[in-house]
Amino acid sequence: MRTRIIVFALFAMLLSKARAQSVSIFTPQGGPIAIPSTEGFLSTRDLLGKNIFLVFGFTTCPDICPLTLHDLKEVAKALTKEERDHFRFLFVSIDPEMDSMERLKALKSVYGPQFIGATDSKDRLSSLARQFGAFFRVFKTKGGKRIVSHTDSIFHINREGEWVGTLPFGSSKQTFLEELKKGKKVSTDFFEGAVTAQLIGENDTCDLSKKECEIQTKQGTFKLSMGPKPIRAEKEFWITVKVNPKSLVPTEIDFEGQLINMGYLRPELAQKSSGEYETKFTSPFVSSIKWIG
């Protein structure tokens, strides 16, 4: 199958308007929480005065979710009694079809009094996740296997209800404890120079699922590769982007209409020995495109 590649890039200066197509940039800023929970209907007002670690997941998650919740339980144990009184971790299930409120309430005995479970309709969950630049998908493969995929980051909301930081899955207990000391609102300085984002190039003759593909533009050259091979619809995949010069910062890639956002916490471009700048990211959701490996 031929994979059409369209690359959007973010610039700190205006590009030539020739053949350019403007697109909007979504900058996650956090936002209000209003969701049914194991503590009743939960709103941002109810959480004021508490440090919150927000996690998106599902109860039948085989590894990432239970490991994260265990880590947060250990964080709670490491706090003083007063600090624990002002600390909660909010587990938002993105699988309401399977996760009833009773099922979420059962987790409180496992993870302790600082745990709060919550879920809602798919549309309202999507809206909440977008506020933090998070993604999730629930779908079935051709063989009928049910797949749930989600962002595994942990979002820190301070006592004033502001999103102040994001920690990756697998962060140490000490990292969590240091994060709780933060009080400053999350910075969006990175986006202040983003005057426009424009369609700058495409290649509809190269099959990215099989080899590295090049896109020539007036501003420079993009090289993209995908893995792990073979590419399967039910598996997460990573994309490596090589660019030259460094002024090109990829933000979104469109595979035949399937828009892949590199995420708010996209990796930094690092210079390689070849002189090219490279970044690698894992798609936060499993692709719905049925590639043939």
Write structural notes for this entry.
The protein has 293 residues and is an alpha+beta fold. The longest helix is centred in the first third of the chain and has 15 residues, at 64-78. The chain is globular. It has helices spanning 44-47, 64-78, 81-85, 101-106, 108-111, 122-131, 173-179, and strands at residues 5-10, 22-23, 34-37, 40-43, 51-57, 87-93, 115-118, 136-140, 146-150, 154-157, 163-167, 197-203, 213-216, 221-227, 238-244, 249-255, 258-261, 270-271, 277-282. The protein folds into 2 domains: 5-26 and 194-282, no CATH class; 34-187, Glutaredoxin (3-Layer(aba) Sandwich), CATH 3.40.30. The model is unreliable at 10-26, 186-197 and 284-293 (pLDDT under 50). The strands form 5 sheets. A 5-stranded antiparallel β-sheet has the order 2-12-1-16-17, with no helix packed on it. The relative contact order is 0.20. Helix 2 (64-78) crosses helix 7 (173-179). Helices cover 17% and strands 33% of the residues.
